[in-house]
Structures are given as C-alpha cells and as structure tokens.
Amino acid sequence: MPATPSSIVELAAVSRLYGTFAALRQVNIGFEQGRCYVLLGENGAGKSTLLRTIAGLLRPTFGTVTVFGESPSEQRERIGYMSHAPMLYDELTGVENLRYFGGLYRGRACLAPEEALRAVGLDPALTRPISQYSQGMRQRASLARVLLPRPDLLLLDEPFSNMDLASARQMLAVLAGLLAEGRTILLTTHQRDLAAPLADAFVTMRAGSVVAVEQAGQPQMSGASA
C-alpha cells in the first residue's frame, strides 16, 4: 500500500534493525487523514515498532518516515502516542495525573484536564487514585492523557488490552467520536472483530513486513493503495 497524494503518514522502504534482527523490513505504506487503520499480526510482527517509528520515538535504520509532510520530530505536537502500558501515576487521581502531564506542554493550547476526562467518558470529580481504577477506566484515562495536546494523529498500542466487553465498547464509542472530528487513528489489536466497526482498513504484518491490506469489505494485497 504505497503512499497516495492524500497520505498524511508515509513510510518509504523503512527498516528498523536491532543488530542483525529486523523489527521492520522494507515497509512501504501510506495512511490517509480521517481514517482508522487497524494493525494486525502476532506478537513480534512489528506492529508496536511501526507505531513507535511513526511517533518519532524510534528512528528507522533505513528509509524515511514523513508525518504531515515533515519528519515525526518536526510534527510531534500533532502526534498522540498511547503505549501498551498506561503511562500514569497510580497514586494520583485522574485529574491530578492530567494536570501534571498538561504542565509538560507549556505554551500550547491544551484541553483542560476535566475536559479531557469527560471526552473519554470519565468523571473528573472521582477522588480515587488511578490504582483503584478498573482496567477499562485506566485505558480511557491513558487516552485522555494523549488527547490533552489536541493531536491530529492518534497512535494507539493495544487500546482494548484486558478490557471487558462493556469497557471496550465504551472505548470504541470514544474513538468513533474522534474519527468524526477528522482525527486519524492507527491502532494495534489482537481483537479484529472488536475493532471491525471502527476500521476503514486492516493492515496485517508478519515478521516486520506489511503482508496484506484489507479495505472495509474488500481484500487487497500489499502494494494496493489504502
């Protein structure tokens, strides 16, 4: 799936090596604005490495990555990355966590902590610490942290991890609302059926390579345009 004229993320011949191990192998792919792409594959397929490379947290060993026409580091303010592990302080409440992280974005017009929590369906008045949140609540609080700087591109690593079905559906509703606002979402999951209502395309990875792209209702092999 090569880049198209409307791609906001483009990877050209991207490889990421760790010694002799290739976490990414000659990846050529583009992602369009306002769509949701679901990355599928076994553990070790390269999904998380792909997200981290687009986020600018990893540099490709070979090839180039552009986001909104520039390097990820130059567009970092427009990128929101949610790691597999919630990056929250267990001893703090949701609001306290977001106040702390909001303070790291000095000089930027961020959402208020209360607004970010409401956006993911959490009550900012909750006084219990994050350690007492359910897994679904922790994941949504983690997403609220990502939303603070109002990113245009969301990179979500296993956002439905360890959630019950009700919590996962709440997360799906939040993500659907973000798509309706014109955001672009790339997410990894092992739960294809769960993410299906949200997906515009499925991207399957194996051994660091993109091996297939499937548009909604239309299977395509790698090399087709998304």
Q: What distance lies between the first and last C-alpha atoms, to the nearest angstrom?
A: 6 Å
Sheet bearing the most strands, described? 7 strands, mixed
Strand order of the largest sheet: 5-6-7-3-8-9-10
What would the average pLDDT be, to the nearest integer?
90
Count of runs of 4 or more consecutive helical residues: 6
Strand/helix succession: EEEHEEHHHEHEHEEE
Structural class: alpha/beta
Strand share of the residues? 25-35%
DSSP, total strands = 10
Helix content: 25-40%
Radius of gyration (Å):
17 Å
Name the shape in a single word. Answer: globular
Q: Which spans have pLDDT < 50 for at least 5 consecutive residues?
A: 220-226
Structure keywords:
disordered C terminus; alpha/beta; 10 strands; 7-stranded mixed beta sheet
Short description:
Helix content is 26%, strand content 29%.
Overview of this structure, please?
The protein is of the alpha/beta class and 226 residues long. The chain is built from six helices and ten strands, in the order E-E-E-H-E-E-H-H-H-E-H-E-H-E-E-E. Strands 5-6-7-3-8-9-10 form a seven-stranded mixed sheet, sandwiched between helices. Strands 2-1-4 form a three-stranded antiparallel sheet, covered by helices on one side. Strand 1 and strand 2 (21-32) form a beta hairpin. Helix 2 (94-102) packs across helix 3 (113-119) and helix 3 (113-119) crosses helix 4 (135-147). The longest helix has 16 residues, at 165-180. The chain is globular. Residues 220-226 have low confidence and may be disordered.
